Amino acid sequence: MPTAASLSDRLLSGDRRALARAISLVENDDPAGWALVREVYPHTGKARVVGITGAPGAGKSTLVGAMTKLRREAGKSVGVLSIDPSSPFTHGAILGDRIRLTDHFLDPGVFIRSMANRGALGGLSEASLQAALLMDAAGRDDIYLETVGVGQAEVDIIDHADTVLLVLNPGGGDSIQALKAGIMEIPDVICINKADHPLTDTMVREIRGVLSLAPSGGWPVPIVRTEAMRGEGVAELLAKLDEHRAYIEGEGTLSERRRRNLRNEIMALAVARMRREMEARLADDAEFDRLVDEVAERRLDPASAAAQLLGDDPVDP
Would you state the pLDDT for residue 201? Predict the structure, then answer.
């Protein structure tokens, strides 16, 4: 097994096998993986991170493949992190490496990894965030974080991307529901994929109506129509992503956004680790079992039980 130093050197040089090994380490919660992240972290912050979210069936993976093709033609290296639903049995990624990205598997300038969301409601797990950092350290110019399609709950991508792309497709009930949800508050660019659908114009009008309710000023969220299967509109979409990047750099908000994202990421990591530690500590704790019994028997409410668990006084009504 390579030493941590040799692995970090290979990773920083862009070695694909070293990157794959490093991601496996953090995904398996190996202490060597976290040590590696600490070592290479000073070399991160250079990649352009685009978070891609949207309802299932919107064609996100196909769109990512089309975007990757054009970025490679422009001479850029690309990292794709596809976050899949977890298997309820193995906790691994159900979908595995995306079939729609197979055209890029042998391209040395493209690194594709599928990871399980491990039950993270917002679509991103602790390990997936570290994997994005490792891709950054390995010198990828663009990193696409494609999150598991969980619809309205999928808003935490805003805390981990420089630019958020929301992908919708007309004629789907999930897409219409998304117009009513908090997810409409997070995109910097909106893509209407499968735009040859007869309801596309209707959906564009509905989206514009929702966007008109937002405070005026700042970045006007563009709506781009694409047909990812045929590559139509993808160049225009990439141009809008570039425009947003230039805008936040020009306004000085890129560093502010990243600082906010890092603050939220620190909190998320701390909460996740505290939960794991508490679950381990309480696994065979008789006092905790007693609290659960009292709640189950309706002699104690959950909030008061939680207060006792934390050593606080019960919350007064």
Answer: 92
Contact, 98 vs 112, CB < 8 A?
A: yes
Q: Determine the pLDDT at residue 6.
A: 87
Q: Which residue has the tokens 């004629």?
A: 171
pLDDT at 172: 66
80: closest CA among 119, 109, 58, 42?
A: 109
The C-alpha R_g of the chain, in whole angstroms, comes to 22
SS3 string of the chain?
CCCHHHHHHHHHCCCHHHHHHHHHHHHCCCHHHHHHHHHHHHHCCCCEEEEEEECCCCCHHHHHHHHHHHHHHCCCCEEEEEEECECCCCCCECCCCCHHHHHHCCCCCEEEEEEECCCCCCCCCHHHHHHHHHHHHCCCCEEEEECCCCHHHCCHHHHCCCEEEEEECCCCHHHHHHCCCHHHHCCCEEEECCCCCCCHHHHHHHHHHHHCCCCCCCCCCCEEECEHHHCECHHHHHHHHHHHHHHHHHHCHHHHHHHHHHHHHHHHHHHHHHHHHHHHHCCCCHHHHHHHHHHHCCCCCHHHHHHHHCCCCCCCC
Tell which residue, 41, 257, 245, 47, has the closest CA to residue 157. 257
> Would you say domain 45-254 falls under CATH 3.40.50.970?
no
Report the pLDDT value the prediction gives residue 212, as an integer from 0 to 100.
84
Amino acid at site 243: E
The domain segmentation of the chain, as residue ranges, is 1-43, 45-254
Average pLDDT score over the chain: 83
Q: Which two tokens stand for residue 152?
A: 């309205």
pLDDT in tens, 293-303: 999 999 999 99
CB 168 within 8 A of CB 190: yes
Burial profile 165-192: b = 16 or more Cβ within 10 angstroms, e = fewer: bbbbbbebebbbebeebebbebbbbbbb
